Amino acid sequence: MGGSDKVNSFPADKTAKIFVAGHRGLVGSAIVRKLLQIGFTNLILRTHKELDLTRQSDVEAFFAQEKPQFVILSAAKVGGIHANSTYPADFISINLQIQTNVIDASYRNGVKKLLFLGSSCIYPKFAPQPIMEDALLTGPLEPTNEWYAVAKIAGIKMCQAYRLQYDWDAISGMPTNLYGPNDNFHPQNSHVLPALIRRFHEAKVSGANEVVVWGTGSPLREFLHVDDLADAVVFLMEKYSGLGHVNVGSGKEVTIKDLAELVKEVVGFEGELLWDSTKPDGTPRKLMDSSKLAGLGWVPKISLRDGLVDTYKWKLQVLVGFILCKVQELDEMKKRLKEMEEEAAALREMQAKVEKEMGTVQGLLYRCRFRIYGFAASLVAGLVCMFLVSYT
Ligand SMILES: NC(=O)C1=CN([C@@H]2O[C@H](COP(=O)(O)OP(=O)(O)OC[C@H]3O[C@@H](n4cnc5c(N)ncnc54)[C@H](OP(=O)(O)O)[C@@H]3O)[C@@H](O)[C@H]2O)C=CC1
Ligand SMILES: C[C@H]1O[C@H](OP(=O)(O)OP(=O)(O)OC[C@H]2O[C@@H](n3cnc4c(=O)[nH]c(N)nc43)[C@H](O)[C@@H]2O)[C@@H](O)[C@@H](O)C1=O
């Protein structure tokens, strides 16, 4: 049995091959930004379309060909409370498949170190707060996300098992609720923060008086900006090689009611909040104890207010970009319409010319026909005269 805690640091060599799985998502894109910022130049990236990580043979072929040296696994089926409770089969099966394929192929193809990302929902619904790493598997899970949580717990256990059996360096980070650029802003399937940013923004733009917020507003949540998480991920890749998973949180919690008031203020919506208590609250409280990570030397930097302002700015830029694209499309359509009108005018002109020429030809034909009839008539008259003369 292996399982040493020897640290396999990220190399000083910035050309080392790093596969960031899920690089277009909220977390993956932040990790890519961070790696590029600190000078890594050899990132291997595949979109979901290019490489479906649920397909075992495709994943094996990819690893055999690319031979990455480091792997950060940030591809997963992810969503908020509604998505988790509506699609339990997808959340358990897709996540189990992705993580099993990637972790196993990484080990078999000589990857030096892998980081797996779980989530704070792995802990029991009523775990003592703040939640320490050793609260794992000490009580029943929150029902709205137990399928996703079971898959994530399996991921942590798989990393531990490979470390124990093969002395292979696989580590796990447990982020709290995250937010930031490239988040999913779907009205139903997203997490609370992007959902509220979208709803308050749309209400402000449409001049609505009310915005509906789910649940009672009483649950407490801890939020971390994704750029802080990316920083912590790089830190763990550099400094940590242990068997146990590591909590990654901000250490600050807020009620959903206060969060909604803050988003309302940042977006600039001036109407009322309506609470829809038919929607689930989920876990009542979910604050992690991140002292293990702090003890290693990492602390977060971005406050919730600053992070929110930054995320709303990003969202506005995306919307402006979208509008500019639509304006450009409209300009191109107008240009094409003008070209079509010019082509139609040219055709009309050509038709008029042809009709005019047809008229001339018809006139000529008419005159020719008239002359032929004249000639024929005089011929007949001549023949009649000749006939009369010869018989008289
Ligand atoms: N967001 C949060 O609040 C939290 C997230 N986490 C964890 O962080 C990680 C990343 O989450 P996040 O960035 O928010 O999620 P996103 O949904 O933003 O991104 C997920 C990424 O995974 C890719 N992906 C999904 N399925 C497949 C597949 N079958 N094959 C290849 N790629 C696939 C997606 O690609 P595509 O879009 O093309 O499908 C996307 O790039 C997850 O492990 C999640 O559990 C943990 C705690 C909180
Ligand atoms: C990261 C974490 O995320 C999920 O757990 P969650 O923390 O419960 O997620 P959430 O962000 O969706 O909700 C937080 C709270 O906010 C309330 N809420 C109000 N209004 C809206 C709203 O409009 N949308 C959403 N989604 N929630 C809303 C909502 O009722 C709840 O009380 C899991 O997927 C879990 O698996 C996981 O890992």
UniProtKB/TrEMBL annotation:
It catalyses: GDP-beta-L-fucose + NADP(+) = GDP-4-dehydro-alpha-D-rhamnose + NADPH + H(+). Pathway: Nucleotide-sugar biosynthesis; GDP-L-fucose biosynthesis via de novo pathway; GDP-L-fucose from GDP-alpha-D-mannose: step 2/2. Residues 323-357 form a coiled coil. Residues 18-249 form the NAD-dependent epimerase/dehydratase domain. GO terms for biological process: 'de novo' GDP-L-fucose biosynthetic process. The chain crosses the membrane at residues 372-391. Keywords: Coiled coil, Isomerase, Membrane, Multifunctional enzyme, NADP, Oxidoreductase, Transmembrane, Transmembrane helix. It comes from the Eukaryota. One of its GO terms (molecular function) is GDP-L-fucose synthase activity. Its EC number is 1.1.1.271. Belongs to the NAD(P)-dependent epimerase/dehydratase family. Fucose synthase subfamily. This is GDP-L-fucose synthase. It comes from Tetracentron sinense (Spur-leaf).
